[in-house]
Amino acid sequence: MPQSITAPYLRIKALPLTQEAFKSFGTVIENPLHAGISSSTSLPPNAISANQGTATKYVDVTHILNHYDEHAPSKQAGKAVMNMFVCKPRALRHETTPKAGSRDLFDIKIVECHPFTTQTFIPLGLAKDDPYTQYLVIVAPKLENTPSGNGTHPGLPNVREIKAFIANGSQAVTYGAGTWHAPMVVLGQSSVDFVVVQYANGVGQEDCQEVEIRPESSAREGVSVALKSFDTRSHL
To answer: Containing H/E element for 198?
Structure first.
């Protein structure tokens, strides 16, 4: 059973996914031209010409890290694995309030981390401007290490500092090793296929740790991501 922690009532606004906003949690992988961070006449330093001048190669757009050999308690070596996740759209909860108006909510009930490996999600066959192909990237920093005597395990997610980002179909994302994140949250009507690249050693707690998030006893609800009312025919 996953460990559980409690959280206060929180509403988190989802922001557009950019490298600058996400840099403390991992890497956003996207064409710099599409992201507006370079132009055809001013390419970034990691861009080189390839394939007889018919392609532009961007070098080291993300790093796949393997810390099993150095840090895993079992000493079981990790190996590179590539899996496919076919992710169905998540159910959203609708609410209307005088202050916030009409909006949809995604309730964050569980987060996970992979202590000894990065994890990269690459959506397949999706367009940047397709409103059917958006997904949420939800991450949390770790709590500072605290003495075990108070019942708080070192490295638990800091639920008061959870962040949420809206990714489009032209963006892949790498979670840093040990980064707490929600399982994939697809928005819209259709499933999205992701190729997922990471290391694994087959030892359950070393490959993936989970923490359930429950509302505090005094909170009527827990932690939710607030979205504009999600119409599958329009953008968020």
So the answer is: strand 192-200
Q: Whose CA is closest to 90, among 145, 164, 21, 20?
A: 164
Using CA atoms, how far residue 191 sits from 6, 123, 125, 129, 210, in Å, is: 31, 11, 12, 17, 24
DSSP string, 42-102: B--TTEEEETTTTEEEEP-SS---B-HHHH-TT-PPPEEEEEEEEEPBPP-EEEEETTTEE
At 206 the three-state DSSP class reads helix
Sheet holding 192-200, edge to edge: 26-29, 172-175, 119-123, 192-200, 79-87
Question: Which residue bears the tokens 């290490």?
Answer: 145
Q: How many CA atoms lie within 13 A of 62 on its CB side?
A: 26
Mean pLDDT by 10 residues, the chain (236 residues): 90 95 97 70 83 93 95 95 96 87 93 96 83 88 60 71 95 96 93 96 95 92 85 43
- DSSP for residue 189: S
CA distance 92 to 230: 9
Contact yes or no for 187/236 (Cβ under 8 A): yes
Integer Cα distance of 209 and 212 in angstroms? 10
